[in-house]
Amino acid sequence: MAILSMMDVDRVYPTLSDIKRSHCIVIIWCCVYAFFWTTASFFLDPTVPYDAIEALNWASNGEWGSPKNPWFVGWVSRVFLYSPSPEFSSMYWYLSHYTVISVGMLGCYRLTYKLSKSISLSWLGLLILNFSGVINFDAIPYNDNYLLFGTWPWLLLLFIKSVWEEPRWWLLFGLTAGCSAMAKYTTFAPIMMIFIVSLTVKSVRRAWSEPYFYAAILIFVTLTIPNLFWMVENNFSSIKWVESQVATQFNLSSWLSLLLVFYPLVLLGIIIVKRSVKLSTYVSEQLKITTVILFLPLLIIMGWFTFHSGGRLVEWLHPFFMPAPAILVAYLSPNTISSLSRIINTLVVISITIFGGYIFVLTMNVKNAGEHLSGVKSLSREAKAFWDENNEGKLTLVGGDDLSQWFTFYIAPHPKITRRWNSDTLPNVYNRHITSEQITRQGALLVGKVGEGCHEGVFAYFTDEWMEFKPTIIKEVFYQRSPKEVKERVCLGIVRGFDPIVSRHFFPLLVA
After folding, report:
1. pLDDT (tens digit, 9 = 90+) per residue, 445-459?
2. Gap between the Cα atoms of 33 and 351, Å rounded
3. DSSP bridge pairs for 473
4. pLDDT, tens only, 294-308
């Protein structure tokens, strides 16, 4: 295997061609990873997660923020707006995730090489990632974490290159930091540490004499300041959402969450100790500072969560795992790398095994994983057919029960929701630009409360907000979340629009 040949290279002082060959092979590895995981997920995963619906909605609103995240998630999701079909949108969801993650994997490899100068240790740092579900199946449900997986290793690498190599790298650092911070506020943890290090460490403090450093700050502020204005105008919804996920409580179980994320490193550490692998006798300043930048904020967060509980702690810890192997592996001595050859062989096998297990779980529908929420697709098709039978106009608006939010993804070309923004309730999915004139002109497809069928008040989610509109056509259908679950009655309704083109065809019928 090409990867194993890298081990021999490292023992005999690799040449420049050996290093270039390794760098090329790692690109192939990352591309193969993205291809297979994207393909398997697209064909086997029954539905996209709810985060995809949120991302599509934030893209359609086109704002400088959202109720949960800054603006970058919506920006990268704007491809959805040009999607010709739900299948295209689903493919983009998986392809974007695993492509960005593979870029982060490449960044992890390059960061390890920058810190260790060892291509074998670089492969070790990369393959540890495949040992974890964090970058594989655990990445799919989130519309933000994968963007941090793709940027954090490069963020640390660009910091090192900016300080110790070429100040021009600060420009790309500022751009990467700004985009990553606007994907998820978690990025402010390492960025704040970098800022503190730039004030306290002599070798880094010289950055303040570099014009490129100030340009990086300008780029970062330019990318982030619009979100601050958005939050001021929208009742600091993102902060309030985070507050709603956390409660004051003594909580030692938070450290179990840390273990659930970092268990691959724990297991690797046990193996390294068992095989008596030595640590490097020389630790560079770059490695020391990078360790502080990543792990000190992590310790502070864990200390805080020792006295607070939060159901999303594991999700918030995920980004810290991505660059962690690159940093910790760099502490190993390259002189003893030959004793790790079996570990690297094992990690390659584990990577393939995890992928095979993922396919097995979905194919065999273990714990309903292969059919979960598959019913939203069939209901979406039935709802679209119901609309087309009673309207000649294009379906552009859907509303009612929260189930209607899935229609925005699984009905082409992605109708928008009728729910308005509310600074008090802070809905995750909403329509910033909706007006009563739009509903009058375009009409809307409504979904009643699941399990209640058609009766008076079943469309209350819509009619309480838009009291001037009532559905004129209704139909009761059955909705089954998955083949293993019971069928439930659902009422579909249509509020007819009066677009000038459409009303030419329907007005004689209405008068009659």
Report:
1. 999 999 999 998 999
2. 10
3. 494
4. 999 999 999 999 998
